[in-house]
Structures are given as C-alpha cells and as structure tokens.
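Quick check before the chapter quiz. The format below is the same one you will see on the exam, so make sure you can read both the input and the output lines.
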Amino acid sequence: RRSDSDSDFHKMSEAKEVTLKYYAAMSCSGCSGAITRILKKIDGVTDISCDLEKKEVIVKGNVDEKDITAKLMKWSKASSKEVKLLKE
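Here is the expected output.
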C-alpha cells in the first residue's frame, strides 16, 4: 500500500525542466512586471523572460503547462490583453 506522500515524491522525481513560450499582448513594463510577479509565485518556475518588442513570455522550470497557461489567461482576462501558447 502506498501513501500519498510516496505518490507525491514519485511525481516530483519524474518532473523535468520545460520551456514554454507564450504570445502576450504586453504594451508596457507594467504588463511585463505583472506577468513576472504572477509567474514567480508558481512553484517550480526557475526563469521568466518577458520581451516587450516581440510580445513574448518564456517560462522555464519544473512546471505544468496547464498551471502556467491558467495564470496567464487570468491576467489576460483582467487586463483585456491576448495571451496564447506558442508551439515551437
């Protein structure tokens, strides 16, 4: 019989570093600052890069794409700015 903590440990040991790239209609440093603050709060995020000219956000870490996307979509709705995951 396995305990929940064993299962959590197993999931953590399988986690691998991912790089996710998003289009985000950022128009100023306030936008990029808000995105950075939001993403920094997510466990596993190791690096965040916001490029205002390209309107790109690159997130690296041991994270779930769905979690990152959900946070960015919440920002998108609040700011009325478009966000979408870019497939490489």
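If your answer matched, good. The radius of gyration is 15 Å.
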